[in-house]
Known about the structure:
Elements lengths: L9 H20 L5 H8 L10 H20 L19 H17 L3 H7 L5 H20 L3
Amino acid sequence: MEKQNSSLPFSNILVIVASGVLFGLGLSVSEMVNPVRVLGFLNVLGSWDPTLIFVMAGALTVAVPGFQYAKLMHKPFLSIEFSMPGKKDLDKKLILGAVLFGIGWGLAGICPGPSLVALNSLDVRVVAFVVAMLAGIFLHDRIFPD
């Protein structure tokens, strides 16, 4: 991962904090932090709970026009240049990571972002998940050094 410049203007920090608060609030209100709700959504062959489709629809409603608008801009509002992913091919590492992510999500019903938001519950399952996730990140950096 590329190291970011640590001297950000105050306006950028405010936007980052506001975005984080909005993201956390959205995850909480939509119950994306509730493993029962998430597992119900993932259980398409059982008693499927389709309500999280509205979370995805809301995200896409904002993201798709935003990305289209960004293509028309010469530079972003709060940065010198855009930081978009350059890699577009599917490789073994990406596929393996997606499979491992899906298995973890399906078993626990917790996704990385919502798990960080759910830490405030101090639920031992959430804390254990976050510790295990951090262990996985640590192992990745040892197995696949860049």
